[in-house]
Amino acid sequence: MSQLPYYSYRNYMMDTYGKVLYSIPIDLDLGCPNRKSDGSGGCTFCPQNGARSAQSLDAKSIEEQIHKSVAFAKRRYKAEHFMLYIQAYTGTFTTLSQQKETYSKLLKFHDFDAISIGTRPDCLSDETLKYLQELNKEIDVIVDLGVQTLNDETLKKINRGHDSKCSLEAIQKLQSYGIKIFAHVIVGLPNENRCDWEHTVKKLVTCKVDGIKIHNLHVIKNTQLHDEYTKRKFKIFDEYEYAEELIYLLRLIPSNIPIIRIATDTPNKDLIAPLWYMEKGQFGEYIVQAMQYRYGKADTNREFWSEKYKDFYYPRSGAKAQAKKLFIDKSDLQKRLTCKDVKLLDIGFGYGINSLEAIKLKKKNSLHVKALDQDRSILKEADNPLLHALYEKSYYSDENNSLEFIVGDIRYSLRKLDEKFDVIFLDPFSEDKNPSMVSIEVFKILHDLLHEDGVLVCSTSLHTVRVALSQAGFKSQIVTLKDIKGLVATKGYEHIEGVPYSDPYLVYTDKQIAKYREHLKA
Ligand code: SF4
Prior knowledge:
Layout: H1 9-17, E1 21-26, H2 62-77, E2 81-86, H3 96-109, E3 114-119, H4 126-138, E4 140-148, H5 152-157, H6 164-176, E5 180-187, H7 194-206, E6 211-216, E7 219-220, H8 224-231, H9 239-250, E8 259-261, E9 271-273, H10 280-295, E10 305-306, E11 311-312, H11 319-330, H12 333-339, E12 342-347, H13 353-360, E13 367-373, H14 377-381, H15 385-393, E14 395-397, E15 401-407, H16 410-416, E16 421-426, H17 440-449, E17 450-458, H18 463-471, E18 474-481, E19 484-491, H19 510-521
Parallel strand pairs: 1-2, 2-3, 3-4, 4-5, 5-6, 6-8, 12-13, 12-16, 13-15, 16-17
Antiparallel strand pairs: 7-9, 10-11, 14-15, 17-19, 18-19
Bound molecules: iron/sulfur cluster (SF4).
């Protein structure tokens, strides 16, 4: 059974064909009805080559395109079964006789199990649909339909040349001819926000399309969008921002509709924005992990063993003692609370032992906690009403305390904070296996977030962590309380020799960070 929190393309292929079909993208050079005869015009985001795939870009003939793409898929993915994908431009923008001739010729070049045809909603004549219906009897036919958005104002602005009604009618027509539809959606088109892509996806779900392809907006060199972006920079999502939108959308799509794609490829030389540091594969893994952390695994009972950290999620024995003796005592939290309201940042919240102990303190002033963790699902399992409240509403408050739970990659959550804290608790769970929480870059952010007289308490005393702290502008002291060890750091200068963990773009995996440190040491 799948461990993925959504119905993936791979699982859909296994369910439908009993094997995975790899797409062989080809460009028939049919042109596009949305472009002038000289190739100008068209959708503002679309490059002159009509989004031709990277692996077939330099191929001359169609045979060569197929040959190159099959060889690439066999080499890279050990692919054995294939689906022909007429990708670039508009795959139905030609006469019916030419379509028939071309498609049947193409299907002879290789033993394909399915054909997928990329096209526009306004380019599906009744003749074409009848032909596709016939073809569908010989080979599985899928139409990759460029919907992009169902917001008419946006469709006008991106010069799409059709409206939302046209897309919805095309879906209905294709369905009446029994042809499968994979609908394309772009997240982040100018002037759109979450409501827009939510509306588009919800509508596609209601229409019962057979699959959804989602990707974030790319600004590609020499497109009209590139001009617009040069004149006025608009919001383009980084990895974490797009991940938030994508996760939101994936949760709206029922588990019988496969998600065919969650990202797209644009060759680096053509991509203006966004410039991501996460590889496409890493992004996919991040989405799966983030969804599992937030909502639990779709089909397994939650276990309290973290495969990732090879440790239990259960509070370790002595966790309460650690909370009291290390985090609370060494931050002088009780004393701070006697003087004024205190803002506490609790990083690596887990079961919340540290914050719960802080909330229990008697106080005449208020404690405001911001708690960060990427794992929300363990809150559900916890036997504690406060944690249940956090699971449901991400917020808890009483007379003297407030606590806001922020779920997400710590590095992303930290960058979104715009306030200063008096006390920071950092519990990296397993610091030697989780270096992303103790890199020099993270400590630099924490330095900015901490008041001048603030204190950072950390449940690790690793030398590399002290090195990172010193390079980020902290001085630290090792605390040893029987079997509890940690660091107490305040702003200041000290030099500690060594090589810290570094995560220059704040997106590296733990393995990449460890490897990068070895590289820095060499
Ligand atoms: S319809 Fe397709 S090929 Fe034509 S301009 Fe728009 S994105 Fe490009």
